[in-house]
Design brief:
By secondary structure, this protein is α/β, with parallel strands linked by helices. Helix content is 43%, strand content 15%. Helix 9 crosses helix 10 and helix 11 packs antiparallel against helix 12. It binds 5'-O-(N-(L-cysteinyl)-sulfamoyl)adenosine (5CA) and zinc ion.
Length: 409
């Protein structure tokens, strides 16, 4: 699949700091020190109702990770998937009486437009589940042949008991895992499974549903977790730097993914850091496609809202926190954007060298965007109150806010 066009990232004087980031698997902060090429996998959308503010907030967090790395003069190798075949997508297509392929294509196209408008850096590899099937089938065959997977009425399940590290990403109790498994696409109640938590790797073809050639597995379609593992291993290999997504992916998705990879390669964990963004709510409940309580990026754009203001609204919250989208959040961001634009539109101003270092420090500190925004606010206030004589300062602030925060002033 093609991704979306990249906006240019201005180079800043000096060099940024290494990222210290919260890792769900170890429960603490890790300092990431990748080689010259940092590797990141971010779970992509299931394209049936994109792009709501929760999605945008999560992709914003991982865009910042890349901007910090780029500022340390590293290259970034970024991979993202599109879950373009899965139960919720097929169910939505049936509900709306539309073709599932067309639905996925339309929503993916909208997501690309939204990501472009928000200045999110594109992945180098943007891979759909369907196009990944030829790579998924041999992995499932290997898992089955090594005893880490088994067949149940034609479907192939992964055996979580095959992985001695199972549970070490989420650290959730068995009870919670069982609950979340039922809620998030698993089938803990299905009779005949070795462990109720075992997830499906390959689903045998069902009447009226799409299916693909699965070689010795028979016709069918892939499970959700093996999709991301196959794409990540194919394009990044084991031991990449960050696996990212929202906190609702901690279990089962990232836990199962780490287990699949461990059973396939004998190595653990698949990623050096498992990084999770908090959930964005609307009217007191998590924004979700299934509940339908959504605010869409595309709707705001159609209403004439500047994408830079949307991005500032996302940045005003710490990425790990759960938070609530309100009209006030957007209005505050619009006002802030106006103040910043007025401040950089003058020919000179107070020196901004210290501000660049403050931004670097705040972002390297587990992506502390609220502190970063306050630092820019202070420079803009000083500009408004006293001005300054540094004729390179407004340009430097514009470039820093663009390079590090993805906001075009
Ligand atoms: N296709 C899978 C990942 S492989 C998937 O979860 N798709 S999704 O469309 O449901 O979500 C895409 C990303 O947005 C995931 O990282 C998910 O955790 C995140 N996300 C979904 N809802 C919210 C929300 N309300 N707040 C923050 N992030 C969210
Ligand atoms: Zn995923």
């Amino acid at each position: 699949m093609h991704a979306w066009p990249a906006s240019e990232v201005p180079a800043l004087p000096g060099k940024g700091r290494d990222l210290r980031i919260h890792d769900t698997a170890t429960g603490g902060r890790v300092t990431l020190a990748p080689g010259p090429v940092a590797r990141i996998y971010v779970c992509g959308i299931t394209p049936y109702d994109a792009t709501h503010m929760g999605h945008a907030a999560t992709y914003n967090a991982f865009d910042l990770v890349q901007r910090v790395w780029l500022d340390t003069k590293r290259q970034v190798h970024y991979v993202q998937n599109v879950t373009d075949v899965d139960d919720p997508l097929l169910e939505r297509a049936i509900r709306d009486g539309v073709d599932w392929v067309g639905l996925a294509e339309r929503e993916t196209a909208l997501f690309r437009e939204d990501m472009t408008a928000l200045r999110m850096l594109p992945p180098q590899h943007y891979i759909g589940a369907v196009e990944a099937i030829p790579g998924i089938v041999p992995l499932v065959e290997r898992l089955r042949d090594s005893g880490a997977a088994y067949e149940l009425d034609g479907d192939i399940y992964f055996s979580v008991d095959a992985d001695p590290h199972f549970g070490e990403v989420s650290h959730y109790s068995t009870e919670l895992m069982r609950h979340l498994s039922a809620e998030r696409g698993g089938d803990p109640e299905r009779p005949g499974k070795k462990n109720p938590l075992d997830p499906m790797l390959w689903m045998a073809a069902r009447e009226g549903e799409p299916s693909w050639d699965g070689a010795s597995l028979g016709a069918g379609r892939p499970g959700w977790h093996i999709e991301c593992v196959a794409i990540a291993l194919d394009h990044l290999g084991m031991g990449f730097d960050v696996q990212g997504g929202g906190s609702d992916l901690i279990f089962p998705h990232h836990e199962m993914g780490a287990s699949h990879a461990q059973a396939l390669t004998g190595e653990f964990p698949m990623a050096k850091a498992y990084v999770h963004a908090g959930m964005v709510a609307l009217d007191g409940e998590k924004m979700s496609k299934s509940k339908g309580n959504l605010v869409f990026v595309s709707k705001l754009r159609r209403d004439g809202v500047d994408p830079a203001a949307i991005r500032l609204a996302l940045l005003s919250h710490r990425y790990r926190d759960d938070w609530e989208w309100t009209d006030q959040v957007l209005q505050d961001a619009q006002e802030r954007l106006g103040r910043w634009r007025a401040a950089v539109s003058r020919p000179d101003g107070p020196s901004a060298d210290a501000l660049v270092e403050e931004l670097r420090e705040a972002l390297s500190d587990d992506l502390d965007t609220p502190t970063a925004l306050v630092a820019v606010d202070r420079w803009a206030e000083l500009q408004a109150a006293e001005g300054g004589t540094d004729d390179s300062a407004p340009g430097l602030v514009s470039r820093a806010v663009d390079a590090l925060l993805g906001v075009a002033l």
